Amino acid sequence: MKSIPKISETEWEVMKVLWTASPLAAGEIIARLTAQDEAWHPKTAKTLLSRLVKKKALGFEKDGRAYLYHPLVKEADCVKAASDSFLDRVFGGSLTPMLAHFVERKKMSSEQIRELKRLLDRKE
Description:
single chain, mainly alpha, Arc Repressor Mutant, subunit A, 2 domains, 6 helices
């Protein structure tokens, strides 16, 4: 399995846009980011695109004067790497204390509780 780059919180926003639709030009990416949150600045987005290319999370192709960006890593692989890293850092790699922490502290609907029970039952 190839190495999954560490992606920062703001880089995740850029990646989500490209996992949804790609390839996209920088202008299209910026437009989608600002549609979600007007605080996005074009220069920030371009810096993040450059950083993600250096990390090998994104690739690009030149199309005339535009660069079309596309993901080089799958969303599922990045989610797995990030969740494994979180589990290791915060809960010493143990799933039980993490699950207990969230179940005890987060409000859950009856349907969410039933779904969690179904998932655990299937694992047995």
